What we know:
- The chain has one domain (2-435).
- It has 17 helices and two strands.
- A two-stranded antiparallel ribbon has the order 1-2.
- The protein has helices spanning 2-31, 33-55, 78-98, 106-112, 117-134, 138-141, 147-174, 176-206, 214-217, 224-231, 253-270, 275-286, 290-313, 321-341, 347-375, 383-414, 416-420; strands at residues 237-240, 249-252.
- Helix 3 (78-98) packs across helix 16 (383-414), helix 7 (147-174) packs parallel to helix 11 (253-270) and helix 15 runs antiparallel to helix 16 (383-414).
- The chain is 71% helix and 2% strand.
- It is an all-alpha fold and 442 residues long.
- The longest helix has 32 residues, at 383-414.
Amino acid sequence: MSYFRDFYQLMLQGSQAYARWDLEMSNNILSNRKRRNILILMLLPVLLGGIAIAAGDGGGLPNVLGGKSAYMPSHYTNLIFFASVFVGLCAGLITGCIGAGGGFIIAPALMSAGVKGILAVGTDLFHIFAKAIMGSVLHRKMGNISIGLAVHFLIGSLVGATLGGMLNRYLYDLNPVLSDLFITVVYVFILGFLSFYALTDYFKARRGESVSNKKAGRAEDVPPLGKKLQAMNIPPMLTFDQGVTPGGRRLSAVFLWMSGLLVGAAAAIMGVGGGFLTFPIFVYGLGVSSMTTVGTDIFQIVFTAGYTSISQYAIYGFVFYTLAMGMLLGSLIGVQVGSLVTKVVPGVQIRGFFALAVTAGFINRFFAMPGKLKSMEYIQISKETGAMLDLIGNSLFFLVIGAFALWVFWVFFANLKELKSEHVPDFAPSASPILKDSKIGG
């Protein structure tokens, strides 16, 4: 059981690293005039299209841009655009306020709003890529990246992303309901795992118990599995972490290819950057230092998301640009507000909201499964029962996420004077409320 707990803590650390990246991207975009102008130019066609459609029935627009008769599986409505802004806003609030986990709700939220799973995945990846390109800070992070590790990891991740994208498209071509079911089942397992340990972590924190994990926390000590893998002399061998250990550490590139394969496939299937897996795999599995892991993780997010969103989804018509731009706009606002609220909210309360948000995502996808299983004739329930369960899952999900968003904004405006007198939080690992009391990361 302790191994699963260690793995959860490291997944949380990976998700937290992605949250830091997300906040930094948002800061870079909003603080730079040229980047703000680029954002406006990207949003302008979407807004003009909405005005044109609102003025008529949309019949004057080419089908490829929107209309319901388009071959691509998406069409524009003003409701869809504002729904995407809301989804992005909530994800940004969770990322900024909690410090982890915002990306986990995007695909479930879009699927709950009626977007096909494959389209939700492709659009989420494109939204991540657009944010990375606009706010890129790779030049700042290069000092924390082992180029050898990064390149060999990317070899595996791009292959994995290709396979994951091909699998999603194959299932969609076979049966769109089967595609949605597959993505839903993956989210049920991942969010179920996170939900169980997040709730356990929260109740321990409420009782005042330590939630640190010394075994998983000393990222500079090579764990047992990492020692075994680093002892295997399988060419080609790579040297890294010279600044952490005298003479550095050595690892076979084969293990990096295998790790990248797993992360790339997960990113392509779930529509996430893959950071929540990169961290535990690197630190707990391969024995890479936390500093090198974070830098490599940021590096791979940009390339994995970019390659996957374009080559595996966009060119096949599975990126909904209206949604992507709406989510980008919402998340830029949400992550800023959420990060400020952490200044005036107790850490244990934030930890509770993380557990609640992840659990809401799990319940949402879990309740969606029976209806999809029934459509595939895997189980025998009435259509009305499946629809009712789906409605319950969607209602609970949006109720929890909506209530969280309202609470964050209420706290924000209620403490506006106090927040104005303080600087924007640095979002250093030690300052993140969800792991504030944890020993992870040193």
